[in-house]
Every structure is written in structure tokens, then in C-alpha cells.
């Protein structure tokens, strides 16, 4: 027995409230920036452990990464986002962002 498909109008399916759209877009952008920050941090640690960075380069990288993390926190707070809201669930692969 085939049941007729229920038709859903667009307003019922999409939340087009400007504030929610802006918050969602900001959340997505901050998620990408946080992913890149974590990748850069891991790369910096690997290069530091391999001994390919000078003390000055290590200091500069550390300062840059701390400044980026501070700015991320400020942006998150400005838009009312919690850190866990920036993570994406990739199903069987687990979360996109690490929690370290």
C-alpha cells in the first residue's frame, strides 16, 4: 500500500530567520578556522620536535597560535556559540575537531 507523500512547504522546512542564518554561517566559518588552527598547531609541534625551527620561529608560532585562539574565543562569545557547537559529527568517523 502506497501512502501519499506529505508535501512540506519551504517555510516549514527551512529556518530562514536572519539571525539564525547568520549564526549558522558564522558557526560553519569558525569551525573551518578552528580545524585549520588545530592542523597548524600540530604541524608546528611536529616541526618543533623535528628540530627544524629556531627558538625565534617557535616563539613567533606560539604567539600567533595563541592570538588566533584568543580571537576565536572572542568571536565565539560575540555570536553566542559554545566550543562544542563548532564541532561536526562525521558519523562513524567521529567528531571533526579534537578536544585536546
Automatic annotation (TrEMBL):
Give Gene Ontology CC terms: gas vesicle
Note the InterPro entries from the entry.
Answer: GvpK (IPR007805)
Q: Where in the cell is it found?
A: Gas vesicle
Q: Indicate yes or no for the key word Cell membrane.
A: no
Q: Which Pfam families match?
A: GvpK
Membrane spanning segments where? none
Key words, A-Z: Gas vesicle
Coiled-coil region list = none
The keyword Magnesium appears for this protein:
no
Its GO biological process annotations read: gas vesicle organization
The domain of life for this entry's organism is: Bacteria
| Primary site of residence | other
Q: Would you identify the family this protein belongs to, as annotated? A: Belongs to the gas vesicle GvpK family.
Q: What is this protein called?
A: Gas vesicle protein GvpK
Name its species: Stackebrandtia endophytica
Amino acid at each position: 500500500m502506497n501512502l501519499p507523500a506529505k508535501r512540506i512547504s519551504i517555510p516549514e522546512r527551512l529556518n530562514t530567520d536572519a539571525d539564525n542564518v547568520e549564526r549558522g554561517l558564522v558557526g560553519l566559518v569558525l569551525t573551518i578556522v578552528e580545524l585549520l588552527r588545530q592542523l597548524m598547531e600540530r604541524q608546528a609541534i611536529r616541526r618543533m620536535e623535528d628540530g627544524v625551527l629556531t627558538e625565534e620561529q617557535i616563539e613567533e608560532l606560539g604567539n600567533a597560535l595563541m592570538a588566533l585562539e584568543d580571537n576565536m574565543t572572542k568571536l565565539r562569545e560575540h555570536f553566542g556559540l559554545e566550543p562544542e557547537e563548532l564541532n561536526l559529527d562525521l558519523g562513524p568517523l567521529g567528531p571533526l575537531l579534537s578536544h585536546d
